[in-house]
Amino acid sequence: MKLLFSILAITSLVIPQPPPYANPMDLTAYDIPVIANFENNTPRDYVPDLVNVPGTYFYLEQETLDAYLQLMDAARAAGHKYLRLQSAYRSFDTQHTLHERKVNAYKSTYGDKAREMAARVVARPGQSEHQLGNTVDIANGSLTRSFGDTSAGKWLADNAHTYGFILRYPDNTTHITGVIYEPWHFRYVGCDIARIIYDNGWTLEEFVQYANAEKEKSDSAA
């Protein structure tokens, strides 16, 4: 089954005006990555073409797996031998179970807002990138904010783009992504787009919006 997405339409998230590009580029030259968030849902019956991650119970798309293995080889060569894959592909039903578990855990604290607050930590089913098969959670222990302050977390944030991954939910971007800072969550988008996003300090939402805007300008000028 081929996954088709329409152009991203931001309604509740806040996308600022783009900063000057770090490097001259033509964003119209790139395919827009599929995006899964509050406003772009993955169909319940969508299942990507998956392969097993060697030595684990996890699955990824082949291209993402190849890039992940290269990233982990580089991390080990840099001395970060305890980094491990914590999560990869998840089905709609698995995501539903995880989300409901978080909602129930939040009810005593947030009451009627439990579901809204839970979605910032565990995406609703259909809105998680893990359902795309191109997303990994990597850490050397538990998935906590403090991982971003470790040498391994800093190395991943600074080097993952070389292998086609972006830090999907950077610090201080919840107003754009709708998700809390997750220093362990990396999304594969390919080396070219990952470099652009890294060089400019963008989120994926920003890249998609700016690229779509440039494509519209290009189409209208044609």
In short:
With about 220 residues, the chain is an alpha+beta fold. The protein has seven helices and six strands. Helix content is about 35%, strand content about 10%.
Q: What features would you describe in this structure?
A:
By secondary structure, this protein is an alpha+beta fold. 36% of the residues lie in helices and 11% in strands. The chain contains 7 helices and 6 strands, in the order ββαβααβαβαβαα. The strands form 2 sheets. It has a 4-stranded antiparallel sheet with strand order 3-4-6-5. β1 and β2 (59-60) form a beta hairpin. The radius of gyration is 17 Å and the shape is globular. The protein starts with 50 loop residues before the first strand and ends with a helix. The model is unreliable at 4-12 (pLDDT under 50).
Notable features of this structure?
alpha+beta; 222 residues; 7 helices
Our Rg estimate from Cα atoms comes to 17 Å
Distance between termini? 33 Å
Q: Provide the spatial order of strands within the biggest beta sheet.
A: 3-4-6-5
Mean pLDDT: 86
How does the major sheet shape up? 4 strands, antiparallel
Low-confidence stretches are 4-12
Order of helices and strands: EEHEHHEHEHEHH
Write the layout of secondary structure elements.
Blueprint: E1 51-52, E2 59-60, H1 62-77, E3 84-87, H2 92-110, H3 114-118, E4 135-139, H4 151-159, E5 165-169, H5 174-177, E6 182-188, H6 191-200, H7 204-221
Antiparallel strand pairs: 1-2, 3-4, 4-6, 5-6
